[in-house]
Structure to design on (142 residues):
């Protein structure tokens, strides 16, 4: 039996996943972080992207989209506290594409009264969701 680590993925609204994993990959602020059991303690902010969880005895990884948040790693526990978290299968491509289009329009219209940082953040989140959807389609999470 492979060594495992406990993983919790929690959003502001609910617990999305709680279980064991052989490996976790998360979009840390400095780049993607790979985590195996007995990893050194770590706390990092996360950027929007895909969290991959390799569950024992399954060929396919569990995928989750996070819009940002905090990653905490302890030798036997990984906790992902996300602003927003969705299971990969729950992502809505049409909604993500529309959010991307609206954010791009807001960024182009510099004369309008708007929060530029918010528009940039919304664009980054929409692009990350679209990438996660494409990753699921390609099957690169296996």
């Amino acid at each position: 039996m492979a060594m495992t680590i406990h993983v919790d993925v929690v959003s502001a609204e609910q617990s999305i996943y709680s279980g064991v994993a052989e490996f976790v990959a998360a979009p840390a602020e400095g780049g993607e972080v790979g985590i195996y059991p007995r990893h050194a303690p770590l706390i990092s902010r996360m950027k929007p992207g895909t969290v991959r969880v390799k569950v024992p005895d399954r060929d396919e990884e569990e995928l989750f989209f996070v819009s940002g948040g905090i990653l905490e790693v302890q030798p036997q526990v990984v906790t992902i506290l996300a602003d927003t978290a969705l299971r990969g299968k729950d992502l809505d491509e049409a909604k993500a594409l529309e959010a991307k289009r609206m954010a791009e329009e807001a960024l182009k219209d510099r004369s309008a009264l708007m929060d530029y940082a918010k528009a940039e953040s919304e664009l980054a989140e929409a692009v990350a969701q679209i990438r996660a959807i494409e990753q699921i389609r390609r099957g690169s999470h296996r």
Remarks:
- The radius of gyration is 16 Å.
- The mean pLDDT is 82.
- The chain has two helices and ten strands.
- The chain has two domains: 5-88, 92-138.
